[in-house]
Design brief:
The protein has 259 residues and is an alpha/beta fold. It is 37% helix and 18% strand. It binds adenosine-5'-diphosphate and magnesium ion.
Amino acid sequence: MIKEITISPGEDKSRDKENFDFITFRAGETISIVGPTGSGKTAFITDIELMAQGDTSTKRVVTINGKPPTDETRYDPSLKPIAMITQNTKCFADLSVEEFLLIHARARKITEKHLAVKTMELANKFTGEKIKKDNRVTVLSGGQTRSLLIADALMIGAAPIILLDEIENAGIFKQEVIEIIRNTSKIIIFVTHDPVIALLTKKRLIMENGAVKKIIVQNEAETGAAKNLIEIDKRMGVIRDNLRAGYEITKDLLNVSFA
Ligand SMILES: Nc1ncnc2c1ncn2[C@@H]1O[C@H](COP(=O)(O)OP(=O)(O)O)[C@@H](O)[C@H]1O
Ligand SMILES: [Mg+2]
């Protein structure tokens, strides 16, 4: 059982020590990592992925439940408690979506009925491009692949820690889905440029020059602002759908008003 992971400070790109004592993420927490390109976001979550022990370029040290991970936890893929999904993550096996999910469920000895179907339904909430059970996983689009892998990680995968690196760009991720993710007991970390995702997480790390510069824990005012942002985002979604479908964008559509 993973209750928490803790990151001890490393060094920024100028080799100065990071300015925090330690950062702890607990089971059930969602976290976002923001900051300009090149600021060290991917490096930060890669340290978590590798369970770094001062042996990466950032010199950070990661502990799990207060202890350094054993070599087995670090290097045995079947024991690895962390799933990382990036823009480049692909499925290589030549299987249908259904076979892929069933094999994974069997490997994990999960016998729940209709699990593959439920996982596919969840994946289809993440993406507008419908995934069908007979689709070959190797020919899914980027957005479909990431949606399937996130659903798989949530429903079938055992990993209590899920790292998502800028995966919002393919039109995936709707608020309802983030809501589902938030209600799991996993630790989920989003590297993101999407303000909606950033504001839907309770904790936010701001990166600069390879270091964690600031940690913001959302207060009530921001939670309120986030609600408005979700409204704006939904409105943008309607406009986007109308544009795609070839309709004219009317004043009515643009006239955003909030209750
Ligand atoms: N603390 C650090 N020390 C040394 N190199 C770093 C550090 N943080 C990031 N880097 C390097 O800087 C480059 C950009 O970092 P990256 O994590 O890819 O940025 P981002 O994901 O924010 O665009 C990478 O080559 C990475 O290895
Ligand atoms: Mg990156």
